[in-house]
User: What shape does this take?
Amino acid sequence: CGASAVILVHHARGAVAHSVGLHPCPLPWRVLARVAAAKVHARARMCAALVLTSLDQFAIVFIIIIMLALAFGIVNTMLMAVLERSREIGMLLAIGMNRTRLFLMVLMETAFLTLVGLLPGLLLSWISIEWLSRTGLDLSKVAGEVMRSFGYGAVIYPYIPAKTVLQTVVMVTLTALLSAIFPALRALKQTINSRS
Assistant: This one.
């Protein structure tokens, strides 16, 4: 072999083998260089997938905690609404309201409360994310060194795809409606003379 060497150059997307020298490298060395570059690239992809998988798992746990807090808040709010309106519910039952309609009334009230909170929340979050995606969120003073050690910049530009927004809307709506079942069943147990 002449005066040639194979150098592995690390890029953001993996490693690339470059042949440097006056004479071309023999075929076996080129093959070895490509194999080495492929191994480094595969290892980088595996590490990136591991980081993304752990971030996905963290996000799932975080979402479950938020949905549980949402469920408890809705159960508390709707249960108090049902208990405070015992007279009205008794009157509705006395004038002939069907228990199915009473159940649906509590569910519809929950749906309207969810809608009233969901739409402004989506609007405010969209405005915040649009603004931060243009200006960036500088984390250099808080976690700049940690971010750089993982290969990220100290300034992040958040972006949420439309699919994620739709999934969030569906999850919040389902959580709200499922949480309203217990207060609605409690309203069904009311009798006409439950409170005088």
About this structure: The radius of gyration is 30 Å.
